[in-house]
Design a protein that fits this description.
single chain, 285 residues, D-Maltodextrin-Binding Protein, domain 2, 11 helices, 42% helix, two-stranded antiparallel sheet, Arc Repressor Mutant, subunit A
């Protein structure tokens, strides 16, 4: 047989051998029967010999073709294995995935659960990037993000994971100042700041910051009251929750994904892990 035949042509011949008809070969190759017949006719014309005899409405290999059937079958097996390997490689969850969120989310929720992801997907490297601002998916600043509130969406896909509960906290030991620490004025309308002002309307604001970590340190050092996520407050032995204040404020938590990168197997795997991990730690209402 002419060595100039392409694998596409040899594949057609192999499928006709396997199925016994042009219609069966066409279905396997996802082409119409007329196209398959035309391709086979071109192959036979180039070879100057018939490859099949029609016997009882089926196509049977001629002696010319029967002589090379073992080699043709071997080539088909190699091609099938190569295709399977390519498919497995494409579907395998591997590579680097950048996740943007607050230090609270990374430190108290995602990082402690990384072992689960590593066992399930050892080929994935996760970049837990701390960002207080909303990243731009259009500029590819992140593959995934976990945010308190929806924020600027770009073209991101978004999923609500639950609610983060806040409570008022005081230093567990030492003198209390009667003051509070709070976000800056730009964040005065945040639910937790509205709740703080309602719970401590006459308290003096001793310090302001847009960082929860900074507010916690300021409160611990000054004896001031502070609104913290319950996850954060109960994990810090320096603070005691003020009775009756749990749930004074809630923030919705969303997981956002880059519209294109979100389709990659590794990003999908990390998104599923984030959804399960964060949802376990939040109020589901």
């Amino acid at each position: 047989m002419n060595a100039g035949l392409s694998w596409e042509e040899l594949e057609l011949v192999n499928e006709v051998v396997a199925g016994g008809t042009l219609s069966a070969a066409a279905r396997r190759l996802n082409v119409d029967q007329t196209t398959a017949a035309r391709r086979l006719a071109r192959i036979e014309a180039r070879l100057g010999a018939a490859l099949f005899d029609r016997v009882e409405r089926r196509l049977r290999p001629t002696p010319l073709l029967r002589d090379i059937l073992p080699q043709l079958s071997a080539m088909a097996a190699v091609a099938e294995e190569a295709g399977n390997r390519l498919r497995r490689s494409r579907e395998e969850a591997a590579g680097s995935v950048r996740v943007s969120s607050l230090g609270l989310v990374h430190g108290l929720i995602l990082a402690p659960a990384l072992g689960e992801l590593a066992v399930a997907h050892p080929g994935i490297e996760v970049d837990l990037n701390i960002e207080d601002r909303s990243v731009s998916f259009e500029d590819r600043e992140a593959d995934l993000a976990v945010r308190l509130g929806r924020g600027p969406l770009d073209n991101a896909t978004i999923r609500r994971l639950g609610r983060l509960a806040f409570a008022l906290y005081q230093p567990a030991a030492g003198a209390r100042s009667g003051c509070v620490v709070a976000y800056g004025q730009d964040y005065a309308e945040m639910p937790e700041m509205v709740a703080l002002m309602a719970l401590r309307p006459d308290a003096r604001v001793m310090a302001r910051s847009n960082s929860l970590d900074v507010l916690a340190e300021a409160a611990a050092s000054t004896g001031a009251d502070v609104m913290l996520p319950v996850l954060m407050g109960r994990a810090d032995p320096r603070f005691a929750e003020v009775a009756g204040t749990r749930g004074a404020a809630f923030r919705d938590v969303y997981r956002l994904a880059h519209p294109e990168r979100g389709k990659a197997p590794a990003v999908r795997a990390v998104a599923r892990w984030i959804d399960a991990t964060v949802s376990r730690r939040l109020d589901k209402s």
